[in-house]
Amino acid sequence: MGRRYLSLALLTEGASDQWFLVPLIDRQIAELALGAPVGFDYSGVVAGERFTVAHRDLVAEEVAELLGYFDIVVIHHDHNERHKADAIRERFPDDAHRIVALVPVRETEAWMLADPEALREAAPTRDAAWEVPYDVEKVADPKAVLKAALGGRRDAERDFGRLGQTVALDALGKVPAYRRWTAELRRAMEGLRLL
Question: Which top-rank group of organisms is this from (predicted)?
Fold first, then answer.
C-alpha cells in the first residue's frame, strides 16, 4: 500500500468554535497518525463556509459539496443539537461513514477547561486552576467559567486558538464526549484504511 492523503473539512456552530477546534483537530489527527501502519499526508482542517446553525437544507447542501472534495466532513454541534448532526448523516447514507459528529456535552468551551496548565499559559497573570472543576462536562455554564478563568478578557479568538494549540490531548481524553468523538474519527479513518 502506498502513502495516502487525508483531507478533512469542518463545519461548526460559530466562529469561536473554529478558533479552538481547527488547531485541536489538526493535533488529534497528528496523534492518531502515530499509530498508522503506513503513514499518510495531511495538510490540515479546512473550515466550511456555513455554520451548522443555518437552515438544515443549507447545511446539507454544503455537506454534499464538501463530500465531493474531502475524505471526512466533521460536523460540530453542542449537545442539545446532536439530532441535527444525525439528521444530516441520514441524508447521505452512502457517505455516512465519512461524516463525523463532534458534539461536546453542553458547549465547546467545556473542552477548553479540561487542562488547567493550558489555561495558565493562556492567562499567565491569573491562577485559574482553582476555578476549573474536575469534571468539565458537569459545568452548567462553561462559557462563564472560561471567561472567569481567562480573567474576563475579550480576545476570544486569540485565547481560543491558543487553547486549541496547547490543551493537553491526554487531559481531553478523560472527557467522555471527547473520547466519543475521537473514537468516531478513528472509525472513519479506519474505514478509509488510514489506520
Answer: Bacteria
User: Residue 115: is it exposed, middle or buried by C-beta count within 10 angstroms (0-12/13-18/19+)?
Assistant: buried
Question: How far, in whole angstroms, is CA 58 from its chain's centroid?
Answer: 21
C-alpha–C-alpha distance, residues 46 and 35, integer Å: 23
Confirm whether pTM is higher than 0.85.
Answer: yes
* Sign (positive or negative) of CA dihedral 96, 14, 27, 116: negative
Q: Which region among 79-88, 93-102, 152-161 has the lowest average model confidence (pLDDT)?
A: 152-161
User: Which stretches does DSSP call E strand in 53-194?
Assistant: 72-76, 99-102
Under 8 Å between Cβ of 39 and 30: no
Position 135 pLDDT exceeds 90: no
Q: Give the torsion sign (CA, 48, 53, 59, 63).
A: positive
Q: Helix (H, G, I), strand (E, B), or coil: what is residue 41?
A: strand
Q: What's the topology of domain 5-107+170-192?
A: Rossmann fold (3.40.50)
Side-chain-facing half-sphere of 153: CA atoms under 13 Å: 16
